[in-house]
Design a protein that fits this description.
By secondary structure, the chain is α+β, with helices and mostly antiparallel strands. Helix 1 (2-25) runs antiparallel to helix 14 (422-436) and helix 6 (165-177) crosses helix 12 (379-388). The model is unreliable at 321-327, 572-595 and 756-820 (pLDDT under 50).
Length: 820
């Protein structure tokens, strides 16, 4: 408990002391965290490796071979590994920072083939003799992976199910709360005797004695600073619940996660998988069988599984797709040394070296776990904060750091080097563990960390308080918010993080950058081109036939867009801002009337600025489109097709629906819109359910069809416009129409009362029970002296006076954003 309290206070000190430095020197709304900032450093340093990476090209040969006189089914592939007795270069032989052959490969005499040399080799060897030089067979065994910890569960769910760490932990929490699995925040790989007995009993019954080891398998934890207070994550109970039962009760997503946990637990108590790895070297051209050499040597490798063992239940995933392919079984035909082989096909293949792969959520959790940084309960929330604060964004499964992250990490490394050091953060966890063992005192530890201490060598180590005060004096905001790319036309080309977004700078030249600009794709050449394009006056596509204003295509911080009209001059725009809210008109200057703010509309997905024409631009600027009256309720508002923050959508009164991919907001008609508006409302990013679990019948009042669906948070009933979740005690298969109608009525009343939507951090907790509403206390009598009834709502407060009223009536200023 003392260690946990110390960690909590330490994290608060770091966040509340360091975050204001980022607000003052970089941008408001940023945050720093003891573990969060270290995780961000990992992402940024991997991206810096990609920025420094230089591609290298190399060639080799791929042959399709078969035993002489054998059938086509006995053919196999082999790759070139030697030419003239020297090894042929592969991707690992090149220096990633220079793109040249590494020093060790040069000393070893590695041969780099280019396109011309490889094709000449194909022409010389394609029809020549081929002989088996060597056949090597080695047995192998593969041990099952240990039962899940928090880290490995998040990694495997990311690899196999494409779940984010936060989504994995949310589903695991639900399974745990309902007794399906054991506690899901642990770094222990130990299974209890109850779990061992349940797993071994199931293995013996389903697979037989051959798949049951004589003794239970035990696993030792390899995690740095592990706190093994709980056993591994496993199905709960002395008898594991079946996967089908859990999937039926908790839905497909939770069922898939339970299946992973169930199979991993069972597989961990099964015997090793056994097989043979076979390697064959084939010589082409001039062959010397006695020496095992040839003009060119090709190699083929295969693997045969002789006993599946634990793989009958479970096979672990991999972070490396190419690694997964290499682990696939490949059966080679029976071959002997000196045997003649026929070359069916020989071709030259070109390759390029690949930069280091970006971190995914799974691989980032693995790295933090390996380094001993953070705790199992924090990794999912850390990654969520990095995405929410725009420090990183997802590109597929990869996490890409933003340019803001580059600036923040550099500032923290320069001025808070110790607290951002990987080893320091791991040692801090060791210090907290010492508190948990009673070897240190929490307040003393915090005092040393915050106020500083004198090290073993007599050198003073400054505390966080000193570092914060020093950074506020020394950090130059302009330098802190800039990241140089190279020499430009006027000065140095820099990426700068400004108050209103990201932009490029070269002396007096400026150019906006989209916030999702990928750092390793922004080369100096591309940056100079963007600056040159921004320096040129935009050429209009034409004029609006109605207003006569020019139409432009531009690129801003949120991507390309079309604009109608010119922006007002700076002095006029400034005057308008000053007059806003005070009823002051801005007078014309030099006979020029101040123009309104030009209309801007983002380009739709798939549209390119280079191919944009005037008719398409005018159609974009005509949004929102009025599709007409709804045929079933003409008296209501018209149906509109609009373009919003999250994409195109329809709006009809209080109803709104997203326009699905494949349907253009510029082409959709009224009939399509009416059909979309009839579909149940879906959460953003989710598709409509494929099929209902059950058709209940017809709503007795409205006549709408009542159906039960399997949702993200469990089963729910829908009448096409309103959804209501089933409680945990309700069985979807036995639910009646009357019960469904009652659920929908309650849901409608909640929405009418304003309680239908959950806040970002609100909503139901601990089993989904709704919090009881406390009785309303009697309020004060009204002006006439009549007291209100007990339980009546208190009268609303008078609105705060507008600016310009006496000082005593002014509302307090908005508090700064919390770093938490």
């Amino acid at each position: 408990v003392k260690a946990q309290e110390t960690r909590r206070i330490l994290d608060r000190l770091f966040g509340y002391e360091v975050s204001p430095v980022l607000w003052r020197k970089v941008r408001a709304g940023l945050s720093a965290g003891r573990v969060q900032s270290v995780a961000l450093r990992l992402l940024v340093e991997r991206e810096l490796e990609r920025l420094a990476f230089r591609k290298a090209a190399y060639w080799d040969l791929l042959g399709r071979l078969a035993p002489k006189g054998g059938s086509p089914s006995s053919s196999f592939d082999a790759e070139l590994i030697e030419v003239g007795g020297k090894r042929v270069a592969s991707g690992r032989d090149f220096d990633p920072s220079t793109g040249r052959l590494a020093a060790g490969a040069v000393q070893a005499g590695v041969v780099v083939l280019d396109e011309q040399a490889s094709k000449a080799l194909v022409a010389r060897l394609a029809r020549g003799p081929a002989t088996v030089l060597e056949v090597e067979s080695k047995p192998y065994t593969q041990r099952p992976a240990a039962p899940f910890t928090t880290s490995t569960l998040q990694q495997e769910a990311g690899r196999k199910l494409r779940y984010s760490a936060q989504r994995t932990m949310r589903l695991a929490q639900r399974l745990y709360e309902n007794g399906a699995i054991t506690y899901m925040r642990t770094d222990s790989t130990t299974l209890s005797q109850q779990a061992l007995g349940a797993a071994r009993a199931w293995i013996s019954e389903q697979y037989g004695a051959e798949y049951l080891p004589a003794q239970p398998r035990l696993y030792e934890g390899k995690v740095k600073n592990a706190q093994e207070a709980h056993e591994a994550i496993r199905p709960a109970g002395s008898e594991f619940r079946s996967i089908d039962d859990v999937r039926a009760e908790f839905g497909a997503e939770a069922g898939a996660l339970y299946e992973l946990i169930w199979k991993r637990t069972v597989a961990s108590q099964m015997p090793d998988a056994r097989g043979e790895r076979i390697s064959v070297r084939v010589g082409l051209g001039r062959v010397n069988p006695a020496e095992g050499s040839a003009e060119a040597v090709l190699r083929a490798a295969g693997r045969t599984l002789t006993f599946p063992g634990f793989q009958r239940a479970y096979v672990e995933g991999s972070d490396d797709p190419s690694g997964e392919l290499s682990e696939q079984d490949r059966v080679l035909p029976p071959l002997e040394r000196g045997q003649a082989v026929e070359v069916l096909k020989l071709e030259a293949l070109g390759h390029e070296t690949e930069p280091p792969a970006r971190y995914t959520e799974a691989s980032l959790v693995k790295e933090l776990d390996t380094r001993g940084i953070g705790r199992p309960s924090t990794w999912a929330s850390i990654i969520a904060v990095l995405l929410e604060r725009d420090y990183a964004f997802a590109r597929g499964a990869a996490l890409v750091p933003s340019w803001t992250a580059f600036v923040v990490v550099r500032l923290l490394k320069d001025h808070f080097g110790d607290v951002l050091d990987y080893e320091f953060t791991a040692r801090m966890e060791e210090g907290l563990d010492a508190i948990s063992r009673g070897e240190d005192d929490g307040p003393d530890y915090l005092r040393r960390w915050y106020a500083g201490e004198r090290g073993a060598a007599g050198r003073a180590r400054p505390g966080l308080k000193t570092l914060v005060a020093k950074s506020l004096d020394e950090v130059d905001p302009r330098k802190a918010c800039s990241f140089p790319l190279g020499a430009g036309t006027e000065s140095t080309v820099e990426v700068r993080v400004g108050k209103f977004g990201l932009f490029l700078s070269d002396g007096d030249r400026r150019a906006s950058l989209p916030e999702d600009t990928v750092p390793d794709e922004l080369t100096l050449e591309k940056a100079n081109k963007l600056l040159d394009d921004a320096a040129r006056a935009p050429v209009p596509l034409g004029k609006d036939p109605t207003t006569g204003e020019p139409i432009y295509v531009k690129t801003g911080r949120f991507g390309p867009y079309v604009q109608r009209g010119d922006a007002p001059p700076p002095d006029l725009a400034k005057g308008k801002r000053k007059g806003k809210g005070k009823g002051k008109a801005v007078a014309a200057q030099d006979g020029v009337a101040p123009s309104a703010k030009p209309k801007m509309v983002s380009l739709l997905p798939g549209m390119e600025p280079a191919t944009m024409d005037l008719p398409t631009a005018l159609r974009l600027l005509s949004l929102p489109r009025d599709l007409g009256e709804h045929p079933e309720d003409p008296a209501k508002a018209h149906v509109l097709a609009r373009l919003g923050r999250f994409g195109p959508y329809l709006i009809w009164g209080a109803e709104s629906r997203s326009i699905p991919a494949g349907t253009s907001v510029l082409e959709i008609d009224l009939a399509q819109a009416v059909a979309l508006l009839k579909l149940p409302r879906q959460r953003r990013g989710r598709s409509a359910p494929a099929a209902p679990l059950r058709d209940l019948g017809v709503h007795p009042a409205s006549g709408a069809a009542l159906k039960i669906f399997d949702g993200r948070y469990g089963p729910y009933v829908s009448d096409g416009t309103l959804n209501a979740s089933l409680s945990k005690t309700m069985d979807p298969q036995s639910l009646t129409v009357e019960q469904a109608v009652e659920l929908l009525v309650v849901r409608a009343e909640r929405e009418k009362a304003g309680g239908g939507k959950r806040g970002r951090r609100g909503g139901r907790r601990f089993g989904g029970a709704k919090a009881a509403t406390p009785p309303t206390a009697p309020s004060a009598p009204d002006a006439a002296g009549t007291p209100p009834a007990v339980g009546a709502p208190a009268p609303k407060k008078a609105p705060a006076p507008k600016p310009g009223t006496p000082k005593a009536g002014r509302a307090p200023k908005k508090k700064p954003r919390s770093p938490q």
